[in-house]
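Run log, item B.
One chain of 175 residues. Sequence copied directly from the ordering sheet:
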Amino acid sequence: MIRTSRLAMIAPLVVSSLAFGPAVAAHAATGQAPTTVPAKARCLLTEDAKSTSDNPTFTLVGSGFEPGFVSFSGSKAGGGVKTTTGTFSIGGLPAGHYTASSSTNGKVNCGSTPKSKGSKDAEAQYKKGFRDGFTTIKKNCSGKMPQGIAGVDPNYEKGFKDGAALAAKQFCSEE
């Protein structure tokens, strides 16, 4: 009984391999390479190596596009490039959201540039300076910004001056 059920399970596999074997061998004998599926068009934004925190620049890299004209558009920039290989690289772009498109590949979302690391730090320095300036002048109307050996961050200095001005206006007015 077990032998018959095993034979019943294996027989269809053997028959199908015998039936399709010559067809597979004939295709291999023609020497034709299997056809490839076209690559999917994609693009990516990367920060330029020479980018600065106060003026970040980015590079738009695309691949998998059909050779021809590829246009790109962003929040603050746009243009196009002719590609013979389906790949392109466009540098020096400002921060923003970008897409690339071609007549054969359609529109591809490239993404948005990341928030600048320097902008968060600058905001934090300004807030700290504002808080310190306000507190210093609130305690003593003739208080001054502390001077150290190291240079003061310009965002901290601006925040300190703005905080000191507000505290002076509120607490040091002459009557």
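Observations after the first pass:
- The two ends are 112 Å apart (CA to CA).
- Helices lie at 2-29, 117-139, 154-171.
Flagged for discussion on Thursday.
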